[in-house]
Amino acid sequence: MPALEASSTDQTLNAHLAAEVSKRRTFAIISHPDAGKTTLTEKLLLYGGAVNLAGSVTSRRDQRATTSDWMELEKQRGISVSSTVLQFEYGGCVINLLDTPGHKDFSEDTYRVLTAVDAAVMVIDAGKGIESQTRKLFEVCRLRGVPIFTFMNKMDRPSRPPLELLDELESVLGIHAMPLNWPMGDGPEFRGVFDRETKQVHLFERTSQGAYRAPVKVRDIEDELVRETMDPGVYRRVCEELSLLEGAGSTFDLEAVRAGKLTPVFFGSAANNFGVQLLMDRFLELAPPPASRKFAGGSVEPTEKGFSGFVFKIQANMNPKHRDRVAFIRIVSGTFERDMVVINTRSGKRIRLSNSQRLFAKERETIDTAFAGDVVGIVGNHDFLMGDTLAERPDVIFDEIPRFAPECFAFLHNTSSAKFKRFREGLEQLLKEGLAQPFQLPDSYQYIPLLGAVGPLQFEVLKYRLETEYGAECRVEVMDWRIARWMKPAQETPPGEKPTRPHVPSGSKLALDADNSFVVLLPDAWAVKSLETHNKDWTIQSTPPKKGPSQ
Ligand SMILES: Nc1nc2c(ncn2[C@@H]2O[C@H](COP(=O)(O)OP(=O)(O)OP(=O)(O)O)[C@@H](O)[C@H]2O)c(=O)[nH]1
Ligand SMILES: [Mg+2]
Predict the structure, then answer these.
(1) Which of 64, 179, 187, 382 has a CB 3.0–4.6 Å from the CB of 265, allowing a cystine?
(2) 403-423 burial, b for 16+ CB within 10 Å, e for fewer?
(3) φ and ψ at 509, to 5 degrees?
(4) Ligand 1 mean position to 435 CA, how many Å?
(5) DSSP three-state, residue 423
(6) Residues forming beta bridges with residue 521, ordered by sequence position
(7) Residues near 551 by Cβ (< 8 Å), separated by ≥ 6?
(8) How many whole angstroms separate alpha carbon 127 and alpha carbon 92?
């Protein structure tokens, strides 16, 4: 009976797809700068068996650097300037882990990554508590309903009292916090963590630079070894804190975690590998697999047969030997197969996805099949733009990628006329990555690019990458404008007629953005007031207008 056979094949395929999706865990590590995201990422790789020897952010010449801070500039500075994708398998799960930069100037990149994940691990420096950038990133997660897991890091340093740290999560971020483990001391007295589920203490030993897994002894809290290892005063305090927690009697609510209303809290030290395994195991158990995603015309289930996904990051020259670009695609539904033909629903063009890669920081290898939750890199000189949807169905357009208003502006002067072509080509490539936004002065006939960025470090990265990746030198002339306002006339200009221009306050400048919309660049709030007063018949917007599907 062929009909019956076909349907049972279908069922097998559906079951296979559902099983693959349920194995996926796609998450970002987020926080204020320097809280230890890259260090924790490296340790998750160590415990996940994806690296044998963990590198360090502050590595000297003879030491190993971390896997995720692979760019030369990141190694030199000891900070992350760009997000990194790492895919590996552990404990029956396929993990897509994204390390993000914490610095405010690179927050566009971090926000884009947050559109591509199903959960986030929020790292907090336990000595400092919640810092400004953590608060902003948390807000983005909350708006998107992304479940958040908290890792209180750097317990090997003098820390704030753990109960106070929990209170802060509730009072400052307004999220309920549920500690799943508890620190046995802090600073030099930090010995390990108490796992509240098994009611066992994990006593750790420090290893040289935390390059290898920390040896661990698991004991009852009453055990002689625990008492001997700990300072009696600290031991007493921890026991009191634990009985207080037990007395509070709150129960763990997985639904609340998945709805982003309750954050499970873990304590540890990423640098010393304390508490990393406990975080990883519980996270994989509690974090959700890929869920459905909405678009203007409906929603897509991850287990749907038809493939769909979207571009959330573009990066050129990851491999300096090949001048190519990688478009990072988060798969939303269906089965990805190498060489499949899909529609770029922005342009309506059909594209063969041939050069598909699995990513592990700058390493990559060909991938033939992937499922919802996976991030695959499509390599080549394709013309994908940030946010593009790739799908088998033409009607699916994910509108995920946020657009930002720049807060600093600069002219980029090419300083070697002999290398103008390289300068122009390099800049064009780097702008496609979303490293900065290009503007143009309407009456200028000279080609001196005017760029807008969220913060000045972006210009430094741009200059550095133009020099090292394209051999083009340039000078950055930072301007005094701080605010951008997009201007839309009350009436559309009839075709063929010159558009009327808005009134521009003194010290401000009229520019055009990449979509040819008028933008006024202003120095301060006074100028904005003046702009509003003198342009009553214009619609004034503080963020770039959304792009239409056909642009
Ligand atoms: N003492 C101590 N230091 C740590 C710990 N974890 C990280 N660090 C140090 O903190 C510094 C910052 O760590 P990173 O991992 O680069 O922090 P990050 O959050 O990735 O920073 P950005 O990506 O630049 O935002 C480095 O010097 C780390 O060695 C820890 O558990 N204990
Ligand atoms: Mg980092």
Answers:
(1) 179
(2) ebbbbbbbbbebeeeebeebb
(3) -140, 140
(4) 24
(5) helix
(6) 484, 509
(7) 346, 515
(8) 35
288 lines ligand 1 (CB under 6 A): no
| CA distance linking residue 157 with residue 153, whole number of Å | 9
Q: Which domains does the chain have, with CATH numbers?
A: 2-82+120-286 (3.40.50.300), 293-391 (2.40.30.10), 408-541 (3.30.70.3280)
Q: Give the number of other Cβ atoms within 10 Å of residue 214's Cβ.
A: 23
pLDDT (tens digit per residue) in 360-411: 988 888 999 999 999 999 998 778 999 999 999 999 999 878 888 899 999 9
Structure tokens at 448: 């001196």
Q: What is the pLDDT of residues 231-246, one digit of tens each?
A: 999 999 999 999 999 8
Phi, psi of 340 (to 5 degrees): -70, 155
Rounded CA gap, 274 and 277, in Å?
Answer: 8
Q: Whose CA is nearest to atom 12 of ligand 1?
A: 34
Q: Are 519 and 513 in contact (CB under 8 A)?
A: yes
Asked whether 41 and 48 are in contact (CB, 8 A), the reply is no
Q: How confident is the model at residue 329 (pLDDT cuts 50, 70, 90)?
A: very high
Tens digits of residue pLDDT in 425-436: 999 999 999 899
Cβ distance 494 to 423 under 8 Å?
Answer: no
- Closest atom of ligand 1 to 42 CA is 15
pLDDT over 50 (residue 1): no
Does the beta carbon of 269 sit less than 6 angstroms from any atom of ligand 1? Answer: yes
C-beta of residue 274 within 8 angstroms of C-beta of residue 268: yes
Closest Cα partner for 319 from 440, 469, 446? 469
pLDDT tens-digit readout, 248-307? 877 889 999 999 999 999 999 999 999 999 999 999 999 999 999 999 889 999 999 999
pLDDT at 418: 85
Mean pLDDT for all residues in the chain: 91
CA of 134 to the centre of ligand 1 (A): 15
* Sign of the C-alpha dihedral computed for residues 37, 39, 42 and 46 taken in this order: negative
Q: Is 475 exposed, middle or buried (0-12, 13-18, 19+ CB in 10 A)?
A: exposed
What is the 8-class DSSP label of residue 106?
A: G
Specify the length of the chain in residues. 551
Tokens of 298: 């409906």
d(CA 325, ligand 1 centre) in Å: 30
Nearest ligand, measured from the Cα of 32: 1
Instruction: Judge whether 181 and 275 are in contact, CB under 8 Å.
Output: yes
Q: Is residue 286 within 8 Å of residue 264, measured between CB atoms?
A: yes
Which range (22-31, 245-254, 373-382, 459-468) has the least confidence?
245-254
Ligand 1: which residue has its CA nearest to atom 9? 36
Per-residue pLDDT of 173-207, as tens digits, reads 999 999 999 999 999 999 999 999 999 999 998 87
The reported pLDDT for the residue numbered 249 is: 74
Task: Go through 485-502 and write b for each residue having 16 or more CB atoms within 10 A of its CB, e for each that does not.
Answer: bbbeeeeeeeeeeeeeeb
Residue 23 tokens, joined:
């194995």
